[in-house]
Amino acid sequence: MKFLAQQLFGTYQYGAQGLSLYRLVYCMFVVLVMGLPSFAWLGPHLNYIFHPPAFSFAALFRGFPGAGFFIAFTLVNLLSFFLMFIGWYTRWASLVFSGTYILLASFGFSFGKIDHGSLMYFTPLFMAFTGWERHFSVDDYLARRKDIWVPPVPSDSRSFALALLALCLGFGFFTAGSIKIIGGWGQWHVEGVKYQLFQNYYTSGRTRFLASHLMRINNHVFWKLMDYSTLIFEVGFLPAAINARVFRVFLGTAVVFHLVVLLTFNISFAGNLLAYLPFANWDKLSTQLLPAYSRLKKLFYGATLLLATAFLVFWLVSLAGNKYALEFRSLLKVMASAMRFTPFNHLIIHSLSVLLLFFLLLHTRMFNTMFRLFFIKSVAK
């Protein structure tokens, strides 16, 4: 037991500086690529389909609260994201952002359908205890300006929070694999992946990319290899979380897994990838960034504040104009809409954007080389 605890909480050693950089990347990807969900459209007019999950905040209610309830908490969610982005009262903002999402999503998922992109919204709940507000933030700027000494977050606290996040990710995959085993995927005569492919193809109309090509494959051994590899990968994710190095290998495999799912089942898990990014090697990247950051500190704070404020105002105006919109759109989605991209096309774009970022961070040397070539040299000039 002592060995397991040492492996679990001793191998997730990440610096606050690197995790602070991840906070910025997380928020920038939200405003530029992903967007945020809106729950202001909920209200008593939907009581006739109110059927919340048994274990949720919504189950404490007999129906939907008034429209003002959802508008108010949606505004709190937006404001907390803004504060988290600029790094002001960051820990509390992170907790409020995740907490309000969990509350609102419990009502949003009370129709019987649950989306699979929620992991990215749970992530700040864990990151709030890692010290990701200690650098590249208004909190840090004000503390330095007023010469206030802020005690560092103990490395044990960071390790514990990241280990819990890893366990949650592993448990999510483990439950997905366990359900497949219970459903018979492990039996030789069952072709689970093929069944899901046919169901998605004919029932949901997901016919793009490789789907139609795979439909033509009628080799039982091929489909069983797909079944067994999926089961081994998903069930093995939870024990892999015990060691950070092994877990990173599984995360890299998960990125490939999600890309295959995107190309075959036409289902995007781009939001999940933001939940994997805390485990990339941010410390080396932040070390590269620090000299440039020191020289351009005021410009950096101004640009961050401007970007965060611009999107906060844009989203507030959008909410005032149409409270029934399902999401607050990112820059990519606004551009895709203006260029008349189909929803599926910009789904592919933002999925591949996150995939590219993850692979670059996974191969730290490649990212550092690109960073030195395109950023540090330009700053030096």
Strand order of the largest sheet: 1-2
Low-confidence stretches: 373-381
Summarize the helix and strand pattern as letters: HHEHHHHHHHHHHHHEHHH
Q: What fraction, in percent, of the residue positions are helical?
A: 55-70%
Number of strands: 2
Beta strand %: under 5%
How many domain units? 2
Tell me the distance between the termini: 55 Å
Instruction: Give me the number of helical elements.
Output: 17
Mean pLDDT rating:
84
The biggest beta sheet reads: 2 strands, antiparallel
InterPro entries: HTTM-like
Transmembrane segments: 21-43, 63-85, 92-112, 160-179, 225-242, 254-279, 299-321, 341-362
Organism: Cnuella takakiae
Protein name: HTTM-like domain-containing protein
What distinguishing features does this structure have?
about 375 residues; mainly alpha; 2 domains; 17 helices; about 70% helix; globular; transmembrane; HTTM-like; membrane; HTTM-like domain-containing protein; transmembrane helix
